[in-house]
Design goal:
Elements (H helix, E strand, L loop, with lengths): L2 H47 L8 H15 L6 H10 L7 H9 L2 H20 L2 H16 L5 H13 L17
Helix pairs in contact: 1-2, 1-5, 2-5, 5-7
Length: about 180
Amino acid sequence: MNVTATLIEVFVILCIINLFYWHVVHKTLLRALRFRLFARRDELRWMAIDGREDHSSFAYREVEEFICKTIAVVPSISLASLAFSMIRDPNRKPSENLERFRREASSQLTKLSELTVRDAMYTMALNSPILVIVAVFVVLALWVIGRFNKMLFYQQAEQFVSELPSDGREPREALPQAA
């Protein structure tokens, strides 16, 4: 077989894989993540109905807003936005609201927030399949040399999502600035 025919075959196979990923795998997994977030929000609201949490407390409102923002906004954001944010300011301090949440939240609310951060990261990863493949190699290299901090990564992701505007636009800090 000649090189041109091989390249055409590879191109057609990659196009089919691309279509399958974006029209089957991505949509299915994204829907599953969104339903899991809806269930988590329902669980949070049941905690208020049952009296296990006070629906007027700061921590409750913060978790509910965080989950709703993750459902509404994060599916339109890629992992690249998070990466730009982390590269731009790797030692960013948590916001005042995030610090207050960590002080006032019950263990149940903290757990719901942590699970939501994880699902937000999965959602952003679904939107960036090629970047995920590259990131796996980078994380493995950092892990081997002992410079990967999983908790710092989760905290950066939590900070990034909590700073997202609720109207669906990405925060200015996360976007590269034009010169």
